[in-house]
């Protein structure tokens, strides 16, 4: 999720959850950001 949010063209990410724990995990995942070198590494792995 953080990788997608690091993309300038992505305004929002729609997540899914089947239970309360998954909602909590999704919120927690959005509360931190990847380092720029991590975004670059993921970009290379996905050819974007």
- Structural class estimated from helices and strands: mainly alpha
Number of DSSP E strands? 0
Q: Averaged pLDDT, please? A: 92
Describe the global form: elongated
Topology as H/E string? HHH
Number of domains: 1
Task: Return Rg in Å.
Answer: 12 Å
What is the strand content? under 5%
Low-confidence stretches: none
Beginning-to-end CA distance, first to last residue: 15 Å
Largest sheet geometry? none
Structure description:
With 48 residues, the protein is an all-alpha fold. The protein has one domain (2-46). The protein is 52% helix and 0% strand. It has three helices and no strands. The relative contact order is 0.20.
Q: How would you summarize this macromolecular structure in one to three sentences?
A:
This protein has three helices and no strands. It has 48 residues and is mainly α.
What distinguishing features does this structure have?
0% strand, mainly alpha, NADP_OxRdtase_dom, 48 residues, single chain, NADP-dependent oxidoreductase domain-containing protein
Q: Which helices and strands, and how do they pair?
A:
Layout: H1 2-5, H2 20-29, H3 36-46
Organism: Polycladomyces abyssicola
Domain NADP-dependent oxidoreductase: 2-45
Pfam family, one: Aldo_ket_red
